[in-house]
Amino acid sequence: MFKHICKLVWNRKRVNFLIILEIFISFLVMFSVIVLTVYYADNYRQPLGFDYQNVWYLQVEAIEKSGTAEKQDRPQQIEKFKRVMAAVREFGEVEAVAGAQYLPYMNGNWSSCNDVNGKPVCYWANAVTDDYRDVMRINIVRGRWFGKEDDGANYKPLIINRQLAKERFGNEDPIGKALNQLDKQDSLPEGKRARVEERVVGMVDDFRKNGEFAELKGYAIYRNSLREADDRLPRVLGVRVHPGVTAAFEEKLLKRLQNEASDWSFTIKPLTQMREEMHQQSIVPLTAFAVVAGFLMLMVGLGLIGVLWQSVTQRTKEIGLRRAKGATKQRIYRQILGELLVITTCGALIGTLVVVQFPLLDFLGFATPKVYAYAIVISLLLIYALTAVCGLYPSWLATKVHPAEALHYE
Amino acid sequence: MLKNYLKIAFKVLLRRKFFTFISLFGISFTLVVLMVAVAFFDHTFGQHAPETKQDRTLGVYFLEMKTPDRDGTWNGSAGYGFLDCHVRTLPNVEKVALFSEHEIIHSYPNGEKVPLYLKYTDGEFWNVLEFNFLEGAAYTKDDDLNRNLVAVINEATKKKFFGDQPAVGKFIEMGGRNFRVTGVVANVPFLRITPFSDVWVPIGTAKNDNFRQELMGSFMALVLARSPQDFQAIKDEFQVRLAQVEFPDPKEWNLMTGNVETFFESVSREVIPSQNRQARPKLLIALLVIAALLFMLLPTINLININISRIMERASEIGVRKAFGASSWTLVGQFVVENILLTLVGGAIGFVISVFVLHLISQSNLFPYATFTMNYRIFLGGLALAIVFGLLSGVYPAWKMSRLHPVDALKGATR
Hints:
The complex is a heterodimer.
Chain A: H1 2-11, H2 13-45, E1 55-61, H3 69-72, H4 74-90, E2 94-100, E3 111-116, E4 119-128, H5 132-136, E5 140-143, E6 155-161, H6 162-169, E7 197-204, E8 219-223, E9 236-241, H7 248-260, E10 265-270, H8 271-314, H9 316-324, H10 329-360, H11 369-399, H12 403-408
Parallel strand pairs in A: 4-8, 6-7
Antiparallel strand pairs in A: 1-9, 1-10, 2-9, 3-4, 5-7, 6-8
Chain B: H1 2-15, H2 17-45, E1 57-60, E2 63-66, E3 73-78, H3 80-87, E4 95-100, E5 103-107, E6 114-121, H4 125-128, E7 133-136, H5 141-145, E8 150-154, H6 155-162, E9 171-174, E10 177-185, E11 199-202, E12 216-217, E13 219-224, H7 231-243, E14 255-258, H8 263-271, H9 281-313, H10 315-323, H11 328-364, H12 376-402, H13 406-411
Parallel strand pairs in B: 6-11, 8-10
Antiparallel strand pairs in B: 1-13, 2-3, 2-14, 3-12, 4-13, 5-6, 7-10, 8-11, 9-10
């Protein structure tokens, strides 16, 4: 039976070739939408590592980024920054406040790389003051958070996430280990040598700065003690307010800060709003893409119905003859759907073969093998569902062919 | 002859309505997507007010600064100090305007929080760009020098602060200071990065002066040439000046690279990665065209499939015509004309739907103040696309059909 159907398909190869081509391209289109969707869905399930509710983002534009004047008045700047933080803390509405280079959902990244066995391990970094844990409600799963014991220590304390621990140290316990490799420093040119050990003191499950849809990526949190002269001044304040505090408080807070530091600028935004904006950056393009792909599939589906319908009408003779020779309606039905199945399999098979090449060519590098496998399976299911639905009406039409019609010809 | 073709085409279209519907659905959907894309492109890059002199405008949008060992790179917008010293003084140009990246600032009229986009500009900004002033006028160079707290606002901001009342002479509070409104301009779309903002204020009103020395920072420059022929000379002079930059601490940073270029060149540099960061605007256009053709691939194959099916229906007509001596070429011509007619009808439907879709996107507020409108450029683009699409999808079925043997055709061939 199967062999026979393949023969029938081969006999109409010109027409079927175009249909296979169409299914193949449809498969690619479907796959690209689905791989992105699966990727986002997979990321969404991962732990976020912080709590964004009731946190406000307070941008502090203190001094400009470059210029030599900056280094000289550092101590005054730090004092001023501490006064600003104290002013925020004074308010009854505020639960905790901390300085940081980045807050979650902020655009822009500070990225760093270390060589491990010749391979660079890259991660995103942040430098925060001690209260950051209370502001973002970070849960330390191993080791400890920054504390007084880090003051004046001969190492730079830092907290890393599980992903970075895995990439950098494999299955070993990361606590107490150095993130940078001091023994290899001698081979580096002067000026690029780090003199201080960066010692891991704690680990968090994860900390995904760009939120729910972002990829899993190594993350390191350095300590900013607002003390040492070579620490950078925090760029933002995270302010955790008590639940129920409204936007009216923003104005009050801003007025107070403007008095404290009149030559600095401040901007306030709830983190929930920044989260929405960041999500839009992921979701809007995907939605647009998915809508276009959806319409494409609708068009392909309708086209397929048309082509199959036409081919059934054209094959009246053949089908009528089979009926006259005693084939049941069931068998005709199975023949038409079977042919369609063979055609779809050809298209989908070529599609899968092409898609499997992508990871080998390092194209679509963001997707893990698991995401990839899921996406392929879902795309295959959908493409079979699409062609099966399109085949229903034409194959039903084929069963309606009366043996007598076939005998009209010739 | 053509009239006959068209008559036949219409009759055929009306004969099997389901097929006609499928074809038209595919064609119009494809053209809607492409026309929306063209409208987007035109909206972002076309020569619209206030950028009415875009054809002779260059800009410094993006610079790079490198460390002595060339490992460290700082890329981003230029600093005010660099632009003031090296770009403002470019010879043989008509005007130079400096402006900052837009930033967000919050204002609290009546205790309500209003986020505003704010841009710092100099006085020349208003001469290089031609904003549509609904009320009042721009601030001037003197306002900038004297650090006057004045502002130009857009129509939407005026509505938020003053309702329907005239706004000129009134004050708006931003960052703890009150700015006097000197003019109200029509809204500028968000995607027009150069002019876009809600509020424009003089550079002199910045809270401190640290930025005035910066080589890298948050400023951009527009250079208005007398004519596009001067572009090359200006670009060459800019490179000479980049080489002359004096670094405050040459051990930290000692090289600057960048270009003075058209906006589209700048975008092509950002979009297409290359070794030495060349601007390749032609390549970008080629890539966009290829992307459009790739997108058309699936609809084209779909339409080819349908066309082949339908042509078999007309085997007897073809047989008669062939038997009476019509050449293959005549038949190919006839069917291609028919197909182009079909795509034009689909194009017309697509055009109407595009107007509707663009209206929806404009309304959705995804892009603040976007006004995606149809204009003759998009219409011509759509027309060209429809014809290309018609040719692509019509030629193969017509060729296949024209090769039918008259005897087979008369019999009603199946294969």
